[in-house]
Amino acid sequence: MSQPRRIAIAVFDGVESLDVTGPAQVFSTASRLLDRSGRGYTVELVSAAPTPVHCADGVRLLADSTFTDSDGEGVDTLVVPGGLRIRPEGVEAVVDPAVLAWVTRVAPRVRRVVSVCAGAHTLAAGGLLAGRRATTHWATAEALAERHADVTVDADAVYVRSDPAWTGAGVSAGIGMSLALVADDHGRRHALSTAKWMVMYLQRPRDQSQFSAPLKPEHCPDRHRGASRVDRRASRRTADGPRPRRPNGTGRTPVRPGVPP
Fold first, then answer.
1. Is the peptide bond before 171 cis (omega within 30 degrees of 0)?
2. d(CA 256, CA 59)
3. Is the pLDDT at 81 greater than 80, yes or no?
């Protein structure tokens, strides 16, 4: 019997709760649906201290271990969720010093590192995205590109895979990226079963825009100005028109649950 893959999620005061609970739910559901025990995942939260962590929405989380106790040994996937400070002058990505120190220390020992939302700023600060393509929450994409010139920022992507690093746009995009991780580990069929169980009925390819049509930058210029400046190629894709649709005999694109093909 194979051992379950250990997923370690760093948590800190100000973290976005869905960045934590979304991936945790995906990995937990994927494990429960596997027909043989031991092949799935275990999920653990790691924080700076053995006291409750206060999320941005007021939810409190209690970690399983501390950064001091965890050296990354045996961890398969390290997940760094994001935190966003929303102020009158703009949005700021939270880079927690304790999280940054821990991630930098243990990342070389794990198979892959994953960021959700503004967690990409922590990976970049630790040098884990140098020379790679990455994405983050659209509101912090311009700042990520400005502060880390060695990172190619795609402000439009839902998630980006650049092994051993995966970066997701967040907040809900972390769920879709986690389904893609399940597909990578256990195959697309099982990822689809997991999505179906979670009642996720929309397929979101990793190169799909972060914005639905009503939320495109031209409709909300002030809030999306930063995102539209980062990746001009993404803007050109939008200007060139919709991506080709798959024929299904009805003239409409089939809607299927799951993850990117």
1. yes
2. 32
3. yes
